[in-house]
Fold:
Amino acid sequence: MKKILKYVFTDILRNKIVIGYTLFLLILSMSVFNLEDNSAKGLLSLLNIVLIIVPLVSIIFSTIYIYNSLEFIELLVSQPLRRKHIWSSLFAGLAGSLCTSFFIGTGIPALLYAPADIALVMTGMGLLLTIIFVAIALLAAVITRDKAKGIGIAIFLWLYFSLLFDGLVLFILFQFQDYPLEKFMVGASMLNPIDLGRILILLKMDMSALMGYTGAVFRELFGTATGFMIAIFVLIAWAALTFWLSLRRFNRKDL
Amino acid sequence: MRSLFTIVSILLCITLVSAKTIRVGKKEPVASIRTALNLAQPGDSILVSAGIYAEGSLIINKSVSLIGLNYPVLDGQQKNQVLTIRVSNVLVEGFRIINSGYSSLEDLAGIKIIQARDISIRNNILDNNFFGIYSLQGTNCTIEKNRITSYNKAEVESGNGIHCWKSDSMKIIANTITGHRDGIYFEFVTHSVIWRNNSHHNVRYGLHFMFSHNDAYISNIFKANGAGVAVMYSHGVKMFHNFFEENWGDAAYGLLLKEISDSYINGNSFTKNTSGIYMEGASRIQVEKNTFSGNGWGLKIQASCMDNAISRNNFFLNSFDVGTNGSLVLNSFDHNYWDKYQGYDLNRDNVGDVPYRPVSLYSMIVEKNPAAMMLYRSFMTSLLDQSEKVLPTLTPENLKDNFPAMKPFAL
Structure:
């Protein structure tokens, strides 16, 4: 298992796209902090990178990588190796290498230029989102054999989490605006890792006062250490559950 | 007229000449301030040496100058009103006044002026009092360079730092007030000036105006108060060159205006407040040459406001520049600088060629449905805002800056 992991990890790190992704993030983050005279504004631009680009790149790159290494996977399966180990090492290799490039590209500049606690939360959220979206990509890739279809599913899932879900929430908010929806909103935020990540970062940036009563409810829950741990736990659960689903499918799949 | 003036000044000189000085202290002939006040004639000076004087409630009912040397302590022992002034032409200077009583029936204060005029209260340190300096129907009094501190946590149990009720021509200058309910409180106070005060970390408002007309407050700092500054039910208020900073919280405003008319807000700086200015029922106000930076909402202007002119202001880094709650707009927003403006200026006259709409669609959504704030800074909402900018449908049609400046004003 270690060998496969090592192979996948180094293979991806050598990949031109991942190197490009790292450089892209690095240049973007550095320029964001150097161009804006105010580190708060830089952080907000960075927030968009973390919430939109990181999930997009993670999910698409991972899906394509899985499809491209189908033959390699078939070869591995023919060896006396457990499928669980093969799939886990693929996941760990993908997540590990993409996390490394995110950390180099965005984490280090953020930690250098921004207030430490916000930068830490932002980096942590970026890493968690990377892992979660790699897991979602694995699930998308294992669902269908057709590469085009698989990538389509992956893009749709990204679109759903970053756009459609919020639209749906907005729709529900307006349909049921006569009811107290604050608790519902907390529940809804847990159903979307991007939303949860965004809210945690915004709470750290002390935006909760802007959010009125809803913000107060969020702060009451996520502002405390235990609430924060719960949120992190939910995010980890997202990664673990999605990966487990894909693993189950991969175990039973007729290659 | 001239001869009358001469006579008056001669009389004044005579009283000055005849005035004597009474020294109070452990080593002096008079040991207590109360005795000195009894001995004194109008026009006398009472010089108090350093020491602790716990003499219960002291009442000044002669026109004297009460001057402390090296801050003698007047201790109210948490039972009494420390100093009460019931007569005009009194000077109180250089005391440390501590521990006034607390009462839920009476407004006990460190220093209270009752129905008097031409009082000067200067260079005192007030510490841990219920109310700090209280003026009840005072006229033409000067409250200057006092440091007023208290340690309150809850609104109901705390009094105001400087409290003026039914007063006129007051001069509140260069005081520092912290830890009280309201830093400075004005109710039915007219023709007064509040200048160069620093009111910070008070429980409720840094400055609170009620029914106080034709007053000016200039060059004050209001920082990190529980709810910022409130100006209510007044007209003819001039607010120049003040700093409203870090009033950050769920119900905090840099400046809350309610039922205000015919006023000027000029050259102020609003930094890091939840709402820089919140206007409700405000009319005929000129908001000019102010800087709004880093606020949640730069300016929240309810549809109940009319004929306000917002011009030549700088808006930087606010989450929302302007928020409103209706489609009716009776105010003008021309000639401001907005850092979010994306238009162009073909003829290079420093005025943008396309109007700027400071109200975003998302801010309208939030106003209608506060829970939507959960989607703050999401991809969805920025997309909505962009499409709204191209084709305005829901945001008020008339709320726009027709002549947005391309460069910030040098303020």
Remarks:
- The interface with chain A takes residues 248-250, 252, 274, 294, 296-297, 317, 319, 365, 368-381, 383 of chain B (CB under 8 Å).
- The mean pLDDT of chain B is 90.
